[in-house]
Design a protein that fits this description.
Layout: H1 2-34, H2 39-47, H3 61-69, H4 72-79, H5 86-98, H6 102-112, H7 116-137, H8 160-194, H9 197-211, H10 219-243, H11 248-260, H12 264-270, H13 278-316
Length: about 325
């Protein structure tokens, strides 16, 4: 039984890696190439005038754009090269917590079955709104931020051959990193399923998922996203949708929760070297995720009730 579970887990992991790799590889290559063109500088120049509205200097556009086009590491690396106040760094950190790696993570959302406009609107909306509110209510943090680490500066690439080679290397390493996480994860999930431990876990998580307006079979999806993030947790999410019968409503609600609060351990620890208060950052993400999911679940439920009433009225009349 254990050997069969291991084999099934490996096959599911490889299939999931292939499914996600077809998205991640080309996106990574394209973005890596765009870094060496006029596109990213143009986008940065375009949004610079908006920075003052949310309490940021024009330079803050650099980590925000890089974080959204690439990932948190790129955004944090850019922050470390700039002289910013603690308040500015905190605002950028909150924004990037909600909105980062948009191209890949939005593509993953589509693969799971969530509409693209929902993911983009929620992530960008939360990022901008949170920055505006923090700038409005927090009057401290005017001292210059002191960073705990300085990243190694990458050498400039000369010529398109070097740029293309670097792009393909980054994409290949991205797929390798994905496989190293997804395949063991899917093996573990398969063991948990075959030993019926996943059912116990779902039951344990059921009060939380029910409170958020979802059925208990969405608990695995929530846990995967919270611990591993949207991209790496997508393997479990895709399998849950295909095999566990997670409804379109529940997977959408789960994703709305997770776009606000995912990879809570890794994403939070990444910001520690920036010298900002990370506990408020975590609490903001968690509270916003809970509140937003409850609001959407309530609206969805009311809409379904109204539709049922209209249908019942049409049948009786």
């Amino acid at each position: 039984m254990l050997a069969e579970s291991f084999k099934r887990g490996i096959m599911v992991g490889l299939k999931t890696t292939w499914t996600l790799g077809k998205i991640i590889f080309p996106v990574t290559v394209i973005v890596a190439i765009l870094q060496h063109t006029a596109v990213l500088p143009w986008v940065i120049k375009l949004i610079t005038p908006l920075m003052n509205v949310i309490g940021l200097s024009g330079d803050a556009a650099i980590p925000i754009v890089l974080g959204n086009f690439l990932n948190l590491y790129a955004g944090i690396g850019a922050i470390l090269t700039l002289d910013l106040t603690v308040k500015e760094v905190f605002i950028i950190a909150v924004m990037l917590s909600f909105s980062h790696n948009m191209l890949i993570e939005s593509s993953v959302a589509i693969k799971v079955g969530v509409k693209l406009w929902i993911v983009v609107a929620v992530r960008l909306g939360l990022a901008i709104l949170s920055a505006f509110v923090i700038n409005l209510v927090w009057h401290g943090g005017s001292e210059i931020a002191k960073y705990g680490i300085i990243p190694a500066k990458e050498d400039e690439l000369a010529g398109w051959a070097s740029i293309l080679l670097d792009a393909f290397q980054k994409a290949g390493l991205g797929i390798l990193q994905l496989a190293m996480i997804v395949i063991p994860l899917m093996v573990v999930i398969q063991f948990l399923k075959d030993l019926n431990w996943l059912a116990v876990f779902s039951k344990w998580m059921s009060p939380i998922t029910r409170a958020l307006g979802m059925k208990e079979n969405a608990s695995t999806t929530l846990a995967a996203g919270l611990l591993f993030g949207l991209a790496f947790g997508a393997g479990v999410m895709i399998q849950a949708v295909q095999e566990d019968g997670v409804s379109k409503k529940d997977v959408t609600l789960a994703f709305i929760f997770l776009v606000a609060c995912h990879a809570v351990v890794e994403d939070t620890l990444l910001f520690v070297p920036l010298g900002i208060p990370v506990l408020p950052l975590l609490l903001i993400r968690l509270s916003v995720a809970i509140l937003l999911t409850l609001i959407v679940a309530f609206i969805w439920k009311r809409t379904e009730l109204n539709k049922r009433k209209e249908t019942a009225y049409e049948h009786t009349s």
